[in-house]
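Review this:
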Amino acid sequence: MASADRLTVAEGLARIRGLTPRLGVETIATSEANARILAETVHARSNVPRFACSAMDGYALRSADTEGASEGAPVALALNPPLSTGAAATTLAPGTATPISTGAPIPPGADTVLVRERATIEGDRLRLPAPIAAWTNIRAEGEDVARGAVLGTGGVRLDPERIGMLAAAGIGQVLVRCRPRLGYFSTGDELAESIAGSASAIADANRPMIAALAEDAGLRLLDLGHASDSAADIAARIERADGRVDILCSSGGVSGGAFDFVRACIEARQGEIAFHGLEMRPGKPLLFARLRSGTLYFGLPGNPVAALVGFRFFVLEAVRTALGLPPEAGQAILHGEAEGQGPTRFLRVCLDADGDGAPRYDASLDQRSHILSSAARADGWLRSDDANGTSTFFPKRSGRLT
């Protein structure tokens, strides 16, 4: 631990993971499960394809009927009525061929399909000037997915391709982790939704920014508005959200000044302060607590970039843990010898490449905690840990988590 009062970033993240419970589960339609996290192993209920079917529009026939066919002695097969996709197939009689659509079942007795573009029709017969090999242009039953195959395990995030595979294999519903519920409010008498007509108001940038970050991550957001620098106002918003959300966040009111009431409001409700302050820049005053109801509480600093770092790397770490996902790893980069126990820095960086094409991380952007424009221009974050001489690159946003 870096000091008697503050944890290191690694210690803070470990404490968040240790205090964050797994979310419950719910059953939802497969069609509505994009980006959701599976909560159990799913097995295919049917083969895909369910039956042998045609891979092409063409003609289903018996390969044995084409043996010996040549230009000089072509084979002529009588044509049956066409077989469309989804229709029941009847047994193919020897010496006949059935027009067939892509995906239609192979008629019993048939073992090959001639592509329509290669077919020569003379009256009501199919003319074949060469033999056709067995099992040509046929999709075998279960060649994509076999009945009973594992289609996903607990912790897998569903994507459009896997949803398609689940649906094809007869899975109409899936058991998934519940989506985390997030409550958020900003604090500060100086903040206003609109600065029009005021010479001293400061625009509340954190509230729409945090809402957008929550939407990016797929969280359900309870917007609790903006609280004044009043213990009663802050306490009322905590009261409104407590027990209704899994994670409650606020920005501002955690630095220890005369009007910073967040910690006192949590303690008045007998909440457990897990840490208040981490050895990092920006965002040193970050607060993490657990309310009596079990709701997790993050008190983010008021400066916009500090609030952004707090949400991006700490609130979302709790979300990942609640969903059963592993910690975000990033890309480790060796940058030199250890320099002691300095604070961890979250640097806004632009990506470039050196002469050999290797990635280069340009941290020359303005790194002050109130400069949001540099975060907008950045390609990602470099977490720099002087204590062990390493840095880790993270993309600007974590992406959809649920």
User: Anything to note?
Assistant: The helical segments are 9-19, 160-168, 206-217, 231-241, 262-268, 304-322, 372-377. The chain is about 20% helix and 30% strand.
